[in-house]
Design goal:
Elements (H helix, E strand, L loop, with lengths): L2 H4 L6 E2 L12 H13 L4 E3 L8 H10 L8 E6 L1 E7 L20 E5 L3 H15 L6 E5 L3 H4 L3 H10 L1 H10 L5 E6 L3 H7 L8 E5 L8 H13 L3 E5 L12 E2 L2 E2 L2 H16 L4 H11 L3 E5 L5 H12 L4 H9 L13
Parallel strand pairs: 1-2, 2-3, 3-6, 6-7, 7-8, 8-9, 9-12
Antiparallel strand pairs: 4-5, 10-11
Helix pairs in contact: 2-3, 2-12, 4-7, 8-9, 11-12
C-alpha cells in the first residue's frame, strides 16, 4: 500500500501543539481542537511520544475514543521512551529544541532507537492512544538538530534497530507503512540510498515551506520522486511565523526571517491572498508531497486551514514571488 492510497486526504492534523508546545494548553482546548478537525472532515492524525512526554498522545487518544477506528489514519513515532520517573521538563537536553515542551508532562524521556526500545515505544503509544493498532510509524529525530555531530551514530542505531523492527511489522501487516520523521533532509537522503530496509514514505518538518525549501529541492525531492516515495510535509508554517506567530525553527524568529516574511506578506496583501493559503498550497504542489499536517491548539485554526486549501490564488502572485526571488526557481508552483 502506498502512502498516497493510505492517507484519507491531503490535509491532516499535526498534534505537537497538543503536548503544550510553547504554552500551557488545557485538556479542554486540546479536545475542542481535535473535535474541530474531525467536524471539518480531517481523518489523518499524527502524533509522537516526544510531544509533551506522552501528553499529545493521551489527549489525541481521549479525543478519538469512540470514533470508528477504520474511519481515520493514525501515525506516531519511535525513538523516545517515556518513563514513570519524573524530571524537570525545562532542563531537558534537546539540542536546538531546548525548552520546547516545558509545559508538558514531567515524565522522563529516554532517547533510544534500538529494537527493544522501538517495540516498547509502540506498546506504550498504543496504550496512551487507546487503540489496538497504528497505521504509520515514523522514526523520530535522527538528525543534526537534536544530536549535532553525533547524529550519524544515532542514525546507525536506528538503522540496525528501529528500521528493521518497523520493516518487519509492515511486512507482517501489523502496521501499514513506516519511514523517518525528521526536521533535516540529510537522514532522508541517506535512507533513500539504502538497498534495505526500504521505507514507504517520510515526514519532513519545516524543510519544504515557503521560507525554507532550497535544500530539499536539490537532491531529496527529485530522488524521492524518482523512487516513488512520498513526503508528508510537517511544519508548513515554519513553527508559526507563516501563520501570524513569532517562532521559526521552534525559537524566536531571527531578523532576516522576519524580514522575509514581511516581503511575502506584502505581496500576498497586494494580491488579496492569505499567507496561510500560500504556505499550504506551496508545500502541496511538489509531486512528491502526499499531505500536509499543520498543527493547531485552537479550533478556529482548523477552519482557517481547510479554507486555505480551497482558496483561489492568482497566478500573478506566484509569478511575483518568483520574480522577487522569494521562491526557488526549481520549486513547482500552483496553477490558478
Amino acid at each position: 500500500m502506498t502512502i498516497t492510497s493510505l492517507l484519507p486526504g491531503r490535509l491532516g492534523l499535526g498534534t505537537a501543539p497538543l503536548g503544550s508546545m510553547f504554552r500551557d494548553v488545557s485538556d479542554e482546548e486540546a479536545a475542542a481542537t481535535v473535535d474541530a478537525a474531525w467536524d471539518h472532515g480531517i481523518r489523518y492524525y499524527d502524533t509522537a511520544p516526544f510531544y509533551g512526554a506522552g501528553l499529545a498522545e493521551i489527549r489525541l487518544g481521549d479525543a478519538l475514543a469512540g470514533r470508528p477506528r477504520d474511519s481515520y489514519v493514525l501515525s506516531t513515532k519511535v525513538g523516545r521512551v517515556i518513563l514513570d520517573e519524573v524530571e524537570n521538563p525545562a532542563a531537558r537536553e534537546l539540542g536546538e529544541k531546548g525548552g520546547l515542551f516545558e509545559h508538558g508532562r514531567p515524565n522522563k524521556i529516554v532517547h533510544d532507537w534500538t529494537a527493544d526500545a522501538t517495540k516498547r515505544s509502540i506498546e506504550d503509544s498504543l496504550r496512551r492512544l487507546r487503540t489496538d493498532r497504528l497505521d504509520i510509524v515514523w522514526v523520530h529525530d535522527v538528525a543534526q538538530d537534536f544530536h549535532g555531530d553525533e547524529w550519524l551514530a544515532v542514525y546507525e542505531s536506528a538503522r540496525t534497530g528501529a528500521f528493521r523492527v518497523l520493516q518487519q511489522l509492515r511486512d507482517e501487516g501489523v502496521i501499514k507503512a513506516w519511514g523517518l520523521g525528521v526536521n533535516r533532509v540529510e537522514p532522508i537522503e541517506l535512507t533513500l540510498e539504502l538497498d534495505e530496509p526500504k521505507p514507504d514514505a517520510f515526514l519532513l518538518a519545516g524543510r519544504y515551506t515557503l521560507l525554507d525549501h532550497d535544500r530539499a529541492l536539490q537532491r531529496l525531492l527529485p530522488t524521492a520522486a524518482d523512487q516513488d516515495v512520498s513526503l508528508v510535509v510537517g511544519g508548513p508554517y515554519s513553527s508559526g511565523i507563516l501563520a501570524g506567530g513569532t517562532h521559526f525553527e521552534y525559537q524566536d524568529a531571527p531578523v532576516h526571517i522576519v524580514e522575509k516574511v514581511a516581503r511575502i506578506k506584502e505581496l500576498a496583501e497586494r494580491h488579496g491572498v492569505s499567507i496561510k493559503a500560500a504556505a499550504l498550497q506551496f508545500s502541496l504542489t511538489h509531486p512528491a508531497a502526499a499531505a500536509v499536517i499543520p498543527g493547531a491548539t485552537r479550533p478556529s485554526r482548523i477552519a482557517e486551514d481547510v479554507a486555505a486549501l480551497d482558496e483561489k490564488i492568482p497566478a500573478a502572485f506566484w509569478a511575483d514571488l518568483r520574480e522577487a526571488g522569494l521562491v526557488s526557481p526549481l520549486a513547482p508552483l500552483p496553477t490558478a
